[in-house]
Amino acid sequence: MTPSPPGQPNTHNPSLLAWVGEMTRLCKPDRVFWCCGSEMEKNILTQEAVERGILIKLNQEKLPGCYYHRSNPNDVARVEACTYICSTSEEDAGPTNNWAAPAEMYRKLYGLCDGAMKGRTMYVVPYLMGPANSPMSKVGIELTDSIYVVLNMRIMTRMGNVALEHLGDSNDFNRGLHCMLDVNPERRYIAHFPQDNTIISVGSAYGGNVLLGKKCLALRIGSCLGEKEGWLAEHMLILGVESPAGEKTFVAAAFPSSCGKTNFAMLIPPEHFKGWKIWTVGDDIAWMRPGADGRLYAINPEAGYFGVVPGTNRKSNPNAMEAMSRDTIYTNVALTPDGDVWWEGKDGEPPKEALDWKGNPWTPASKEKAAHPNSRFTAPMRNNPALAPEADDPSGVPISGIIFGGRRASAVPLVYQTFYWIHGVYIGATMGSETTAAAAGTVGQVRRDPMAMLPFCGYNMGDYFTHWLKMRKHIKYPPKIFSVNWFRKNEQGNFMWPGFGENMRVLKWIVDRCHGRIGAQETPLGWVPRAENFDLTGMKNYTHDMFEQVQSIDMNEWKKEVILQDELFIKLYPYLPKELIFQRELLISRL
Ligand code: SAT
Ligand code: MN
To answer: What is the pTM of this model?
Structure first.
């Protein structure tokens, strides 16, 4: 394509031009700016964001290309209560989603958007979810009045002309409209219209509410498309395990938000694992489709990381530290007088003084946290030293194992393998996890979060389970399915497994099981490692006894767990596939 002047459309796509025209007449911006994704455009927009006080330029010697943003304190996380699936019928959204009639929601939101961009610029952000030239990739167009959103989308997706080229003259693109309005929680709606491949988000300017490619398109709308087209859109990281012999095994793993997906995806093996290497394909989302060779193939639709900052340091995640050392936008961390950033759990001493995430003076004696617990970094995946070369492969990577993990203080052992696909789907479907700061609301309560998709499944959760079960017919060599829990605690309240890099040991066992290289022990829950097959070498002060403890299965705890699982099953009862009810019966009999 020949370059157009900054801000001009670089397309003749009739449906795209017509829709942008329609939305322009609705929102009445002073100016429409089409993004092409160039470096020059980035510089112009960044400069403007700094002049308008939306971004603060950080110390460029310490953090080249890095900027700082504070969101409105009422707008710091996804809000599930304001998130709607506006499918034609309420049953299609199912009992786990908020539903509103599409016509009614369109009326309400178009009403709010009418003239909402007066005095502002509407940015047209074309973006591609997935590698260029991949049959699995999808195009979205986000119209937004937030320059912060544009700059984040530029990192998180393949943004600009690359998307327009992929689209050509097709009408097959996601229509996303985002109006900040006055960032008022009373008028905050994140509405999805699966039958129209459309998203409208108003009243927020933060993260998953407004970076429409991420949770809205890649998961909620994506899951609907996946059901229709025969693939899976999942809240999963994708990583590759390379052995010293050069064998590469790819696994996908579902964990709820803020449970360490980014850390796991960027893991650095402990010293004992010489020659082993973990490659990151993605840290949050996987789109998976059966390939011609009978295996399941995955792409990461994203191009960057929107990762949790607090707790990240050179020990917990050196690759993330490296990734966010340049060309990164920091949101809601603390700002030091020398233009550096700080957060709880960063390496080194806390600064003597700083401005906290709200912009208030902060010292180590302050009672308030310096960084918001859901503060984030937005960094391009290119910055990750462990980025898998396959991350740009249009065919994706073959998945040998799928892992389901929650944040559970009790009952769930460190690792076990399910007996077969249907059992694996049951384990995914009944996953529980303690709530985190990634979503507004109470933190630390166990809730059922099937496949970590509770806030992200765009259709009826019962139908979603059925879709998972049906997928088995189309995958000749299905991935093995595992359960993990890094967060089990003992009676003293201490974690029973060190986690982080040591999770490599669990991964190694999983890889060996995927390749059918080692045996395992049968238990009522599934297959667990035999002591001789689980490598604890080089772990200081960690005994086989402690491993037995973290793997232990307490029948009384599990009887309670099975009853807790009913909370979700009863809610979904009319839609629940019978296979899952039988799995529950089998589990109870084994216990
Ligand atoms: O705010 S986001 O939805 O992008 C982060 C998350 O919840 O995983
Ligand atoms: Mn996520």
So the answer is: 0.97
Report the C-alpha gap between 393 and 397 in whole angstroms.
Answer: 8
Return the domain boundaries, the chain. 14-54+79-230, 233-304+387-590
In the reported structure, the alpha carbon of residue 169 is separated from the centroid of ligand 1 by a whole-number distance in angstroms of 32
Fold of the domain spanning 233-304+387-590 = Phosphoenolpyruvate Carboxykinase; domain 3 (3.90.228)
pLDDT in tens, 420-440: 999 999 999 999 999 999 888
Q: What 3-state DSSP class applies to 506? A: helix
Q: Is the CB of 372 under 6 A from ligand 1?
A: no
Residues, the chain: 591
Distance 500 CA to ligand 1 centre (A): 21
Is any ligand 1 atom within 6 A of the Cβ of residue 257? Answer: yes
User: Which ligand is nearest the CA of 76, by number?
Assistant: 1
Q: How far apart are CA 426 and CA 445, in angstroms?
A: 22
140 dihedral zone (left: phi>0; alpha: psi -120 to 50; beta): beta
The fold for domain 14-54+79-230 equals Phosphoenolpyruvate Carboxykinase; domain 1 (3.40.449)
Residue 536 to residue 508: CA distance in whole angstroms: 11
Alpha-helix runs per DSSP H in 96-216 = 102-113, 147-156, 161-167, 207-210
DSSP state of 575: G
pLDDT tens-digit series, residues 142-162: 999 999 999 999 999 999 999
* Residue pair 332/70 in contact by the 8 Å Cβ criterion: yes
Task: Tell which atom from ligand 1 comes closest to the C-alpha of 439.
Answer: 7
Contact present, 200 and 82 (Cβ < 8 Å): no
Cα 116 → chain centroid: 30
Q: Give the 3-state secondary structure of 375-427.
A: CEEEEEHHHCCCECHHHHCCCCEEEEEEEEECCCCCCCCCEEECCCHHHHHHH
Q: CA-based angle 291:297:300, to the nearest 5? A: 140
